[in-house]
Design goal:
The complex is a heterodimer. Chain A is an all-alpha fold. Chain A has helices spanning 6-32, 39-61, 63-84, 92-110, 114-136, 142-166, 177-203, 218-239, 244-272, 287-291, 294-309. In chain A, helix 2 (39-61) crosses helix 3 (63-84), helix 4 (92-110) runs antiparallel to helix 5 and helix 7 crosses helix 9 (244-272). Chain A starts with 5 loop residues before the first helix and ends with a helix. The model of chain A has no long low-confidence stretch (mean pLDDT 93). Chain B is an alpha/beta fold. Chain B has a single domain (2-204), classed as Glycerol-3-phosphate (1)-acyltransferase, CATH 3.40.1130.10. Chain B contains nine helices and seven strands; from the N terminus they run αββαβααβααβαβαβα. Chain B has helices at residues 2-22, 48-55, 71-74, 78-88, 101-104, 106-113, 138-143, 159-162, 189-204, and strands at 24-27, 38-42, 65-70, 91-93, 117-120, 151-157, 175-179. Chain B has a seven-stranded mixed sheet, with helices on both faces. Chain B is globular and about 40 Å long. The termini of chain B are far apart. The mean pLDDT of chain B is 85. Classes of the chains: A mainly alpha, B alpha/beta. Chain A binds chain B through residues 75-76, 79-80, 82-89, 92-93, 95-96, 99, 141, 272, 274, 276-280, 286, and chain B through 23-27, 129-130, 158, 160-161, 164, 167, 169, 171-175, 208-212, 214.
Chain lengths: 310, 214
Amino acid sequence: MFDLPPHSAYAMAAVLGLLVIASVIRLVLRWRKPDKDYTELRQRIQSWWWMVGVLFVVLAANKNIAIAFFGFLSFLALKEFLSILSVRQADRRAVFWAYVAIPLQYYWVSIGWYGMFIIFIPVFVFLFLPMRMVLIGETKGFIRSAGTLHWAVMLTVFSISHIAYLLTLPVKNPDAGALGLVLFILFMTQFNDVCQYVWGKMLGRHKIIPKVSPNKTWEGFIGGVGTITLCAGFAAPLLTPLTFSQGLVAGLLIGIGGFIGDVVISSVKRDLQIKDTGTLIPGHGGILDRIDSLLYTAPLFFHYLYYVAY
Amino acid sequence: MKRVMKVLFFGLLVKPLVLIVLGMNIRGRERLPSRGPAVIAANHNSHLDVLVLMSLFPLSQLHRVRPVAAADYFLRNPLISWFSRTCICIIPIDRSGHAEQDTLFSDCQQALDQNEILIIFPEGSRGDPEKIGKIRKGIFYLLKERLDTPIFPVVMHGLGRALPRGEALLVPFNCDVVVGEPLPRPESAAQLTRQLGDAFAAQLEHCVTRQEAD
């Protein structure tokens, strides 16, 4: 039914395999320590199944459905972001136009208009939204509002649309197809989160930015970046047009970028004194809690790839 | 017929709208009563409030959930009146202050007798966006003869930004819905309004959505 390129199909099978292993481990844990509460772990793994399941179905369906899916993800993320930020009541109509930018941005992606895709939000939306706010006329808090609104659109729409644009790029590795690039960036980013966490749990001693994230350590950071750099080096020739050594650089960018995305959203939450940005994904929190690292890794990986391979 | 309309309206329109266009951060959903007699006392900032509250209930229970709504507003013309009575199944209430207390609440009493769940906005009006107004005593007089009825305080936050009073353009924003424990049995109207005010204030602390004024 689905005509998947072989390497992408293997990668998807590998991810499903990892999920099966995670589920089995949880069942074993529950069996060995029946009195301990594993609710959060169970929710987390169940949510992973859902996220991976939905993602794989839309990716396998067709290109435009997948692009629309990332547009919907941008919508959910932008909505969640604006809901926790202190957007003024007066800005409702400007916010409305920020939402309108989403279908337009993803339309440019779907027709492969690179020039428009890359300047639409940083130039046109950037210039337009403050103008719309001027027409409303509330000047108290204007600077802060204009700043936060554009920042939110850049992170949740501009950044995330880079993942969708990977699907539009000409295929240079026919064994993996356009799908391979998306699987590569998504898997490496999420696996980076896991690796930094696991290395930090095992060896973590020296705090890296205690004021923002007390649990982040140098050991976790370096261990995670090292693991991802190596993994990306081996996976890149299979899933992307990059060579082994180019893959190492991509892995380095993803490892560091993912860390930064994570702590940037952590700083936002700390500033607002909230723990999670929402409750949409049981066990994980909100959409932003899940895609925080992707906000940085997606554009970084995209432009590195675009520079070396296109 | 009414029940079918209500299920269709909520299943096809309201639930998708509330889940996708709005999005909810829900806390304490498991506390919601599955059958009456019970009262949900919520703060009120937007027409969306009642849709969000009702969409928390499964479609199979929805026919038991009845919002108490202002007759002067929701019965003001035949179309709105038909919609309010058929799709939402409101219990209209006279806000003019001229009605006798016994007859004023008779429809509400009847609903509670039939194990229905009433939704009441004790502020009596939507008021300013995202502000909790003065809590009125009507809810106590409604329950005066049956003070054992559980009252669940529910706080919603964020809907005053999505669709404030006097605006027609709905702008998507997530909202918080915090369901509290049922209140202890009140002895007087003043005590009940105080309990509700305290519960609202405490539940507001759990909201993650923000507003410039916060």
